[in-house]
Amino acid sequence: MATFSERISDLMLEKEIRSPELAAIVGVDATSVNNWKRGKFQLFLSNAVKLANFFECSLEYLVGRCDNTATYSAKSCPPFYPRFIAVVEECGYSTYYLRKESPIKGAHLNKWKRGADPLIATLISAADFLKVSLDYLIGRED
Question: Any idea what DSSP says for residue 119?
Fold first, then answer.
């Protein structure tokens, strides 16, 4: 499967969009887009959602976790932290268990509860642990 850097480069070619244009759409510097294309990135959830919405793809496809290229029509995301906790509970876990047995630690939960924007790499770990897709985890799909 492709990596995020390969996906972002391919999607940009398909849409015939350059780094400065995509940067303006996402609200980042063109250097950030170029770093994403080189595989040097810290991709935050808010930027990943903007990218996936612009390219009309799932987060799973964008980050290289699946190869399904079907046009994706996402629903609007609810607030992250309440959705995350609801999915954790739906999967039969407590936040205590999550902190002890998964890569998601108390510091992550505390930051997210206060409104911090999670890194996609951390959410991938959470999605793997919970056995759900990134899009489901954040509420882009049912």
Answer: B
Half-sphere exposure of 90 (CA within 13 A, CB side): 13
Global pTM? 0.92
Kindly compute the dihedral angle of the four CA atoms of residues 92, 86, 137, 94, in this order, to the nearest 10 degrees.
-40
Q: Could you tell me the residue range of the domain that residue 21 belongs to?
A: 4-62
Can you tell me the distance from the alpha carbon of 103 to that of 99, in angstroms, rounded to the nearest whole number? 7
Kindly list the distances between the CA atom of residue 43 and the CA atoms of 26, 97, 100, 123, 142, in Å, as whole numbers in the listed order.
12, 26, 25, 11, 23
User: Can you tell me whether residue 110 is helix, strand or coil?
Assistant: helix
Which tokens belong to 64?
A: 């290289």
Tell me the CATH number at 109.
Answer: 1.10.260
Confirm if 51 and 32 have CB atoms less than 8 A apart.
Answer: no
- Residue 67 belongs to a domain: no
- Is residue 93 exposed (0-12), middle (13-18) or buried (19+ Cβ within 10 Å)? middle
Please, are residues 88 and 98 in contact by the beta-carbon 8 Å criterion?
yes
CB 127 within 8 A of CB 66: no
Q: What is the pLDDT of residues 66-89, one digit of tens each?
A: 988 766 777 889 999 999 999 999
